[in-house]
Amino acid sequence: MEQKIRILLVEDERMLAEILSDTLTDRKFDITLAYDGEQALQMVRNGDFDVIVTDVMMPKIDGFTLVKRLRSEGCKAPILLLTALSATEDVVRGFEAGANDFLKKPFAIDELIVRIKALAGRTKGSIVEDEKVYTIGRYTFTPKDNLLSIAGRDTTLAARESAVLLHLCRVVGERVEASVILKELWGDDTFFNLRSLNVYISRLRHHLAADPDIEIVNIRGVGYRLKIRSVQ
User: Fold this and answer.
1) Do both 83 and 138 map to the same domain?
2) What is the total count of domains within the chain?
3) Contacts of 44 (CB under 8 A, 6+ apart)
4) How many CB atoms lie within 10 A of CB 131?
5) Distance (Å, rounded) from C-alpha 62 to C-alpha 78?
6) Do 103 and 159 fall into the same domain?
7) Is residue 63 part of a domain?
8) What is the pLDDT at residue 86?
9) What confidence tier does 157 reach under pLDDT thresholds 50, 70, 90?
């Protein structure tokens, strides 16, 4: 029998929490409910979860602070933030705290399920199955381990960072449409998700900054191109 995905659902609106819990349980997920950030912290300390789904606007401990606390305590579970906030700075704040994905309210339950399944698949490894080791300028990139290395220094990328980088390095020098990345990794190419993708691109630029010959070029209105000057 296939093991159920264990989800910690953190939502202070009890009616919404119970509706989501019942719906996800009917879809064969194993749901644990927490109604505020403090309760969620204790549950994570005392149990194991495949995915944490949390609202942002909550009393006691808001979602951003909860994510930061969980990461500081060593929690590795993927975290999906549910939010009515849509400003770029809110998306950046969430990713910097350690969130893996955002879903903007209101949302369709099928979209929530797709995102949960995608995140759950990353707990045991990379979001993609690719056994190759790629050379990117002075870096080596091992997608299956989410590992980016240069001069003996290793950086473990977030699963979605790794997946975005893989799209770019498979076709070095060629453009990759943002809509293609979004539909494969996020499920749709909405403007809100595009802002999330832009945050990941910024993080990848930071990770690759040790080699000045590498540039991720933004092709306005289209997508991106990974450029390596020494080979072009």
Assistant:
1) no
2) 2
3) 8, 52, 70, 73, 75, 77
4) 7
5) 17
6) no
7) yes
8) 64
9) confident
